[in-house]
Amino acid sequence: MTKLAMIAAVAAATLAAPSLAQTETMTGQPTPPDAEERPHEFTMHGVTVEDPYAWLRDQSYPIVDDEDVLDYLKAENAYFEAVMEPHQELIDTLFEEMKARIKEDDASVPQKDGDFEYWWAFEEGDQYRTWYRRPVAGDRTAEAILDEPELAADKEYFRVGGLSVSPDGNLLAYAVDTNGSERYTLKVKDLRTGELLPDTIENWRYGLVWAADSDSFLYTDADENWRSKVVYHHVLGTDQADDREVYREEDEEFGVGIGRSQDRAYAILSTGTNTTSEVRLLPTEDFTAEPILVSARETGREYDLDVRSGQLFIRVNDEHPNFRIVTASVDNPSSWQELIPGSDENYLRGVTTFENLIAIEERIGGLDQVRLIDPATGMASYVRFPEASYTASLGNNPEFRAEKLRLNYESMITPDTVFDYDPATAELETLKVAEIPSGYTKENYVTERIGVPARDGTVVPVSIVYKEGFPKDGSRPLHLYAYGAYGYAVPPGFSASRLSLIDRGYAFAIAHIRGGDDLGYQWYLDGKLAKRTNTFNDFVDVAKGLASAGYTAPGKIVASGGSAGGELMGAVVNQAPELFGAVAAHVPFVDVLNTMLDPSLPLTPGEWQEWGNPIEDAEAFQYMLSYSPYDQVTAQDYPPLLVTAGLNDPRVTYWEPAKWVAKLRDVKTDDNVLLLKTNMGAGHGGKSGRFDSLYERAEEVAFFLTQNGNPAADSETAAAGR
C-alpha cells in the first residue's frame, strides 16, 4: 500500500469511528495529506519551469485509474470530512435554512408554442424537474413529456443538456449526461406513444435544429478532444454512423455551434473563437441545400444574427467594440445597411427579430436595457423597469409573433421575476415572483452600487447588498464575489442562499471587474491577453476600497469564484493574502501555463485567443508565468482555503486544483485550514441535484462562518454573557 493509500484508509477508518479525537494529531487537529514531490521540469523560450506535482495528472486521462492519484484525492476528501465534521450541526442548520427558502413544488410559467403550452415543475422532495405540456385548445389535460426524477433514479449524477420538440409536436429529442463529463447521449421520444425511437446520438454537444418536416435534425458532437468541429444531419430511423456531414471546421482554434432563427426558416451554423466568427444559414425546409455563407471570417471581427422573413439583422463589432446592427437580405448577405450605429454609451448585446417587433438587448452604464423597434414604422422605445439597479433579459419567447414579450427580471433585493410586456400599452404584467416559503421581506435589505478606483485610476463598479442597519464602521465581514473573464458580466441579481450570510451580519458585494463586459465590450478587452492582470488588480483594489469605505476591514473579507473566477481567487491570494479571512475556489483554473501549453487538452486551442499562446509567443509565456496561480505560489501566509474539483470535469481538469493544493501545503508558512474536495462522480458544475448542490453551498457558508467569524453568533454569545 502506498503512503497516500495508507492516509486515505486511516482517515476513512477514523471517520467511521465514534470519536473524532482518534483522527487528531498531538495538536488536536486532523492530519492533512502530504502529496509526494516528484522531480519534473521543462524548458521553453529559455525558461526552466519546475512542476513537482505533474504526476497528479493521470496519463490515461480521461480515464483516471492511477492508484497513486486516486489515493491522494481520496485522502484529501477524507481530510475534508474530518475537518468539517465538528461543524456538521452548522452545515445541517444552513442547509435546512437554505432549503426552506426554496419552493419545493415550484413550477415555471407556461408558455405557448404552437398547439401546446409548455412548462416544467418540481414535485416536493424531487431533485429534478418534470416537463409538461397541454393543448392550447380543446382537452386541456396536462401530460408529462419528460420525467427527470425517473431518469435520474439511482444515478449519482444526472443532467439534461437540452430538449427540443419537433415542429409537428409529435417527437421530443433530449440529451442526458450521467457522469459530469458533458458527453451527452441524445434520444428521441414519440410523444404520441411514450416510446423511445431507436435513434441514439452519442457524444452529443449542445445544439439541435429540427427540419421543418420533423423527419430529421442537425446536431453537433464532441470529438475525442471534447471539441465540436462538425455539424451532422441525422435522418430518423438511420444509424448515427450514417449521419451526413453538413459542415466541418478545419481550424483547430475554431469551434462550431448551431441554432435556429426566430422565424424558424433557417438553421444558423456559427463557427468561431473568442474573437472571430463566421455564420452560415441552412433552410429548415431543405437540409441538403448548400449552406449560405453570410460573411467570411475576418480576424478580430465577431458577428451574430437573426432572420426575419428573408431579412438579416446582424450584430457586428467591425466599426466599434460595442457593436453596431446592420441589415441585409438572405439573397445578398454581404451587402450591409446600418440600422443602429456603434456607440460608447450603448453596448449592443443581442438582437431577436419577431414578426411584429425587433428586440435589442443592450447595456447602458452597466445597466440592462431592452429596446423595441416597430418594423412597420421604425419607432423605438425602451422597456421601463421598476428599480434603479437590476438585471433583465428576454425570457422564453418561442414563437415568431410576440403579442406580449416574456422577460426575466431580478435585483439584489428582488427575487427572480417573470414579466409579460405589452408593446401596445407599454405595461409590465407580473406573472411570477420567486416565492421564499420561509419568509422574505424586501424592505429589510438595502442595495447600493458604488464605484471604487483601481490602482490605474479606472473606476470599478461594485454592487452591494446588506441588511438594514448594517454599520459601515469596518466592524463587519463582507463576502466579495467576481468572475472577470470571457466577457461574462456578473449581474446584480438575487440569491436566496446568500441570505444565510447576510442575515448573520455579512454584506455581499459583486465586483464588476475588467474581463467581464459589464461596462461594454472594451471592459472585456481590458481584462484579457496582455491585460489579464487588470482583472486581479481590480478585485484586490475593490477589496481595499470597500474596507476604506467602512463596509468591512482587511482580514474580514471572504471571497469566492469558480473556474476562471477560481483563477482569480488563486491570483489574489498570491497578491494580497492579508485581505482575506477565508477564500473558496471552485474548480479553479489555476495551472494556467501548463494547460495553455498543451494543445491536446479539450479547450486549449480555442482558449489561446483569450489567454495567449505561450507555445509560439515568448512574451505570452513570460506573462502567463508571472500570474499563473500554481506557478506563483510562494512562501507566505495564506488565508483559509476551500478548493473544489470534479474528477470528470472536461473544462478545468481535476489535477489543476489538486496540484495547486499540494503545492500550497508544501510552501505556505501558516497553519490555516486548506481543504480540497473532489466530486468523484461529477464534473465542472459540481453535484447535479438541486438539494445536493445546495448542500455544497451550505458547506461553503459554514466554512466562511467558522473561519472568518459569525457576527450573529458572536452577538448571541455576548448577550448571554451579559
UniProtKB/TrEMBL annotation:
Residues 494-707 form the Peptidase S9 prolyl oligopeptidase catalytic domain. It comes from the Bacteria. SUPFAM superfamilies: alpha/beta-Hydrolases, Peptidase/esterase 'gauge' domain. The keyword Signal applies. Residues 33-433 form the Peptidase S9A N-terminal domain. Residues 1-21 form the signal peptide. Keywords: Hydrolase, Protease, Serine protease, Signal. InterPro entries: AB_hydrolase_fold, Pept_S9A_N, Peptidase_S9_cat, Peptidase_S9A, Serine_Peptidase_S9A. Belongs to the peptidase S9A family. This is S9 family peptidase. It comes from Pacificimonas aurantium.
